[in-house]
Write the C-alpha cells for this entry.
Amino acid sequence: MTEAYIISGFLGSGKTTLIKTIINTAFKGKKIAVIENDFGEARIDASLLEKYDLKVNSLTEGCICCSLAGDLKKTVEMLLSSYAPEVLLIEPSGVGKLSDILKSCFSLEDQGKLQLQQTITTVDVRFFDKYRKNYGEIYEDQILYGDMILFSHQKEQPNQVLTVMKKIKFACNLSLLTLFALGQWACEWDPYEHDSDPVRETLEL
C-alpha cells in the first residue's frame, strides 16, 4: 500500500528542500509521487524528476488545503491508479489548514487506498512571531497537527530555536514533544507517535 507523507509549512520554511533531501536519502530507490501546490511555491526541479523518475502532479487553482480538498482526493486517486507509487509526498500551500488536508487523507485511508505515515510541519524560526500574528489559527493549525515539527534557518538565529519551541509548547499544549538537533534542522518529534521514523533517521545522518 502507498505510504503518504504530508510536508506542511509556510513559504520559505524549507518544505521543498526537505522533500529533495528525503527523496535522495530516506526514499531513495522507491517509486515516488509528489503532489504540490503552485501558489508561489518553489518547484521540484527537472533534474530531480529525471534522476529519480518522479511523478509530480500540481494543483494550480489555489490552496489544496481548503478550496481544492475535493480535487486533492481525486488527484491522489488518479495517481494511485495510474502510477501506483510506493511513497506519496503531499506539499500543500502554506496558507491553509493542515487539518483540512488530513480529512481527505483520512477518507482515502479508510477506503484502504493509502496509509498516512506522517505529517511534517516546517517552521522558519526567523518569522515565527510574525506568521503567528498575521495568520493566527491557520499557522497554529499546521503546528498542532504536525507529527514532527522541523525548525529551519536555525543556523541563522540559533538562539531562537528554544524560544520558538517554548512558545509552541505553550500555545499548542504540545508537552510531549522532544527536541532533537538534526544537522541543518532542529526538530520537535513526538516519541509516542513513531517507533521507527525514516525521515528523522535520515536527518540525523
The longest helix spans residues 69-82.
